[in-house]
Amino acid sequence: MSIRSDSLRHALLRGTAGVALLVSPLVGGAAIAQTAPEPAADAAPAAADDAAADIVVTGSRIDKAGFDAPTPTTVVGAAELSLGARPSVAQALNDLPQFRATQTPTSTVANTNSSASAMDLRGLGVTRTLTLLNGRRFTGSADLNTIPQNMLKRVEVVTGGASAAWGSGAVGGVVNLILDDKLEGLTVGAQNGISSRGDGHRYSFNGSFGTTFAGGRGHFMIGGEYQRDAGIFDRFSRPNVGSTDLFSPVGKVNGHSLELSRNVFYANYGTNGLITGGPASLIGQTFNADGSTRPFQFGQVGVGGTTMVGGEGVSSNSEHTLTNPYQRYNSYARLSYEVGQATFWADATFSRIWAKYPFYAETGTYTLSGSNPFVQQALGGQVGPNDTIKVGRVFEDYGMRTFGFSRRNIEGAIGVDGTIGDGKWKYSAYYAHGELRNAQSYDNQITGANLTKALDAVDDGSGHIVCRDALTNPGTACRPLNILGAGRADPAAVSYVFGNQASVVYTTKLDTTGFSLRGDAFNTWAGPVSVAFGGEARWESSTTNSLDPVSAAKGFSRFNFAPLDGGFNVQEGFGEVAVPLLDQPFSKLDINGAARYSHYSTSGGIWSWKVGATDRIFDNLLLRFSRSRDIRSGSLTELYTTVATSFFSVAENGNTYNNVIRYAGGNPNLRPEIGSTLTLGGVFTPTAVPGLNLSLDYYKIDIKDAIVSLGAQDIITSCGLGNAAACAQIDRAPPTTPGGLGAPTVIHSTYINLAEYKTRGLDMEASYLLPMNRFSNLPGNLRLRVLATYVPKVEINNGVAVIQRAGDVGDGVSFGTPKWRGTGSITYTNSDFSIDARVRYVGGGLYDHTLDLANNRIASRTYLDLGGQTTIGGFTLFASVNNLFDRKPPLTTYGSIFYDSIGRYLNVGAKVHF
Known about the structure:
Oligomer: single chain
Radius of gyration: 30 Å
CATH architecture of the largest domain: Beta Barrel
Strand content: over 45%
CATH class of the largest domain: Mainly Beta
Number of strands: 45
Shape: elongated
Helix content: under 10%
CATH superfamily of the largest domain: TonB-dependent receptor, beta-barrel domain
CATH topology of the largest domain: Maltoporin, Chain A
């Protein structure tokens, strides 16, 4: 970006000084920066003009040139978002150290948020980051795959509490997606990516068109994109993520109860059936495909006898995808028209993302009667008719359980922006309506009652094997199921047991409306007092359109969908004031205050507020301070979910590791969370070194009455510490020894206002823009930039235990956060060529400091990305490679959200602009 005028330059210095991230037009188009760099000889004047028109930042409602927002705000331009050719804007932002990649197609491989990409600032959870589109709430905020990335102008990220300005949910901060409403011309592009191992193929097409009409008073734009990602199914193609799991060896390992080990398999299930109970001579026998028996090849069996290292077998971890496949398309259109001093506009978005892919196979231990004809055929006289055997089974031969989803989002909005009189007062008003239709399904899942009947096989007296149910119910659909040996069952029996589909369709609706008025109220000795005030209202609801009858009766063995019906509304009023106290060459001191009153239909009224101050000293140093009270009301899921089912593995007493089902439900009586945020920092832009920018900000966030549904491991741990209420939430299997404690099988949980979260950290940035003509005859600019975040404290008090999670980086840890993360880049760019190199650093730590784990420590990782592009006329070619040196991930179970599990990945693409 180039600034030709000193007056414009200083306006931008003050108008955007709250920004803590500098970006440059690496790919094309102006990017808003924290401070204006020294003019570059070859820069386009239009860039400065565009920048001057966009002085408002999301950290404040005050709309005035020369205003320094006290809350740190990061602005990421379109060029910055293109680095690494990430598949969504969310995954591009996750490269910044302030974000935690909680929901991505890599991290949602085993839940119903499949392939979603949502923002999580400070690692406090996606529900505590408020995501906006052009300054308003939208139904696609939970999955930024809904936004055409090629139409984004910039993203503004408020890295502190902002509820007074924007309302509920802004406890961790705000992400505001700003689309390019001045888009001109036609641009068409395509991109293709693949890993160095030949998998993970991803390709996309995009296009956009914008034009003015009616002598420039009107503007129309439309665009969209299509993307297909094939996913990565073979986890063994990557080191350290194949069938890795926590393992509890008999006799411990180096004095520790647990070890993170490779090749951890089921020791109590077999793909052909493993006998785990019955006559002693049969225990440990497995079936061949033809039904005959042989000894099972056990590896090193762990405590409890459920897992082993080595041997023959499979694990649920190895059956998950490494990254989810999906297809998606999205589109956006906007029409605006100026009438006098007002601009009327309307826009619409439409998006859909869908996929269907293997999840993992059904498993279980089943008791068969000795009189079962299938048992007698396989085992002959080894089992008496009055005896029983237990068989552990992995049903891979009847197909993997598959998960399917289709999320469709439709939204439309209308509004007006304008000025009054001489333009010193501005106003805005809008109304928006959005609907998200979410269809989900599980196929090839066991129906529990049908399996029980199908396993109870008998001889009908005429030599035919039938279900016992058929003896008294000749019209039964039941067919006897033979699980002794692979693929030996009657297809009709398989269809009877596995044939029902779990399915549900939800529709979430969001209606929002708001207005605001901004301007200068009066003057003081130091300048005009600026104010902003307005009101907003919204209505949110969720309706269950359809639910399969088996799920409704909780009849599936593993995953049963639940209804989600309910809604709430909120009305809000807000105000903000900026008062200049001193305007001298050596100091420009302003104070800022904001307040918002929100009335929720579910919990009543509540206040949020913010106070802040900035002091710009000699135009070289900006000091800033803010203190805020922020809120977050319960989401529709937290308020109204009847029962949500999920699957976890938990460690108990540091000795055993068990698979459990967790049932979590909503609570309509939840109160809003209360957040307290403090930020202190400064920005140094020395005039003696043009182009140099340094910033440092400290943040402190405390959240009380946090809404929490205790995790499965938290409940197990709390029970082990003697908490009777936690123990009451656990269902257990019968004990294997007299007086012993049975293995946990089901964990019950519900959302409550119980937790308290605290986090502390430092955000640091240094950047330097160097025009090449200062020391050479080369055109263009060289930009160096480093961003880093240090997080010494993430303290989670879940109501039963206080746990420090800073430095816990294992994939199974809620709120785990590396203490250090950073990115550094160097970029050369001119009018038709650019090349960049980026280093990403993720600090190490412990997998989970609460576990007695022998190999608990995880080393840091450093990744190198390269990219470049060239433009000839209107035709642009670009390419990039991420994780150039193919740094392997640390040893984890499902795959860490912090470290790269994919390895080296290459992208190439082209676009043409008319």
